[in-house]
Amino acid sequence: MIRFCVTLLHLLWHLEPMVQIVGAVEMHFVQTYINQIYVVCGLVGLFLGGEGLIRGAVSIAERLNIPKLIVGLTIVGFGTSMPELLVCLQAVNRGAPDVALGNIIGSNTANILLIGGVGALIMPMSTQAKGLRRDVIVMLMAGVALLWFAFKGVITQQQGLVMAGLILVYLLLVLVLERKKTIPVEMEDIGAKHLSLPWAVTFVAGGLALLIFGADYLVKGSTAIASSMGVSEAVIGLTLVAVGTSLPEFTVSAMSAIKGQNEVSLGNIIGSNIFNILAILGITAGVYSLPVSAQFLSLDLPLMLGATLWLCVMVFAFKRIGRLSGLICLLLYAVYLTWLGLGAAGVQALGVSVLQSLKAFAGL
User: Fold this and answer.
1) Which of 12, 76, 193, 238 could anchor a disulfide with 106, C-beta 3.0 to 4.6 Å?
2) CA geometry: angle at 65 spanning 59 and 69, to 5°?
3) How do beta strands 125-126 and 320-321 pair?
4) Does 360 map to a domain?
5) What sign for the dihedral angle of Cα 277, 282, 287, 291?
6) In sequence order, what are the residues at sequence separation of 6 or more whose Cβ sits closer than 8 angstroms to the Cβ of residue 148?
7) How far apart are CA 224 and CA 237, in angstroms?
8) GO terms for CC (predicted)?
9) Total structural domains in the chain?
10) CB atoms closer than 10 angstroms to residue 121
């Protein structure tokens, strides 16, 4: 009996730590699911908020008889980039600047390699549209400027304001050069003409509210996931956040390619990349100076610039981007994601392991 009581006390003594461990594990899984829900809700909020903002703003602009070109360059252009802007501002405000910069760099890389690759696989994209060469040069110059600013380890507020000013110069230039043309945006597809003024204002207000809500939850969930998985915030920004905020561009490009409007698909990619660097990053850095981690300089920025340079070569040297080029883009993006997933240390360890195996095999 005494032995039984001693054994029971021994079990009870060790039971509480075991319960605490089990409880901690359960709480970890619960918190992981909550963070995933945050990310999903954030992405949905960004998507619906962007749609509502554009519909309402375009409807108001139509009622004010604002020319379609100005509507496309300003309201539609900035409207589709609002998710990225609010995510970047929210990330820096929460003390996660790597998420903000990773979002910009990752979005531009995904636009070319992922979205461009899928678009080219669906329908080869023509590179002969007027104005495309001008825009792709602007995109390359914006990428070079970003790399130049980032080399000092921080993108200052002054540099951010310079980039924000350059996007205004670019829009003014396009407005002057394209003033006699129409833009490839159908207002009927947006649904703007079917909204009364009160509903349009409601869409704008509701869209902004959803964008703010979505940005907050996406940043909150993604940074928590990064912390729980032991992944850097830069990697989360380059992958999860970047691809998530690029979903509108992916939808537009894929639907344009399916409809055979491949020039629209390519133009959407180039325009988005210009806006991301000059407008989104410029405004964000203009509000908060952005520190630049070494990872961006060693791999991600050079890759983004390399993809941009490749697109420039395709636009100037070839009449179209074919399916083979699209497949190569997707394979390169898959390799890049694999590298980010394993991490530089993981890839290096894998390489050492393979080398040792080869040496052992050669010694047999």
Assistant:
1) 238
2) 85
3) antiparallel
4) no
5) positive
6) none
7) 12
8) plasma membrane
9) 1
10) 17
Rounded to an integer, what distance in angstroms lies between the CA atom of residue 210 and that of residue 39? 14
Of 28-32, 148-152, 275-279, the range with the lowest mean pLDDT is 28-32
Domain assignment present for 361: no
- Angstrom distance (rounded) from CA 120 to CA 142: 24
Contacts of 4 (CB under 8 A, 6+ apart): none
What are 292's two structure tokens? 């630049």
Cβ-contact 272, 134 below 8 angstroms: no
Which single residue is written with the structure tokens 């939808």?
251
Q: CA 166 → CA 133, 147, 184, distances in Å?
A: 18, 16, 23
Q: Which two tokens mark 102? A: 């990773």
Locus of tokens 């461009």: 116
Query: What is this structure's pTM?
Result: 0.77
CA distance 313 to 351: 32
Sign of the four-CA dihedral 321, 322, 327, 332: negative
Could you give the CA distance from residue 104 to residue 58 in angstroms, rounded to a whole number? 26
Alpha-carbon distance 83 to 89, whole Å? 10
Q: By C-alpha distance, which of 361, 106, 80 is closest to 232?
A: 106
Please check whether residue 32 lies inside any domain of the structure.
Answer: no
Helices of type H across the chain? 2-63, 68-70, 77-93, 97-110, 116-122, 132-150, 157-177, 187-190, 197-229, 233-236, 242-245, 247-258, 262-274, 282-287, 294-295, 301-317, 323-363
The distance from CA 306 to its chain's CA centroid, rounded to whole angstroms, is 17
The 10s digit of each residue's pLDDT in 207-260 is 888 888 888 888 888 888 877 777 788 888 888 888 887 877 777 777 777 777
**143: domain range?**
38-341
Cα(303)–Cα(308) distance, integer angstroms: 8
Which run of H or of E encompasses 143?
helix 132-150
Q: Classify residue 362: in a domain, yes or no.
A: no
Q: Are 159 and 305 in contact (CB under 8 A)?
A: no
Give the CATH number for residue 233: 1.20.1420.30
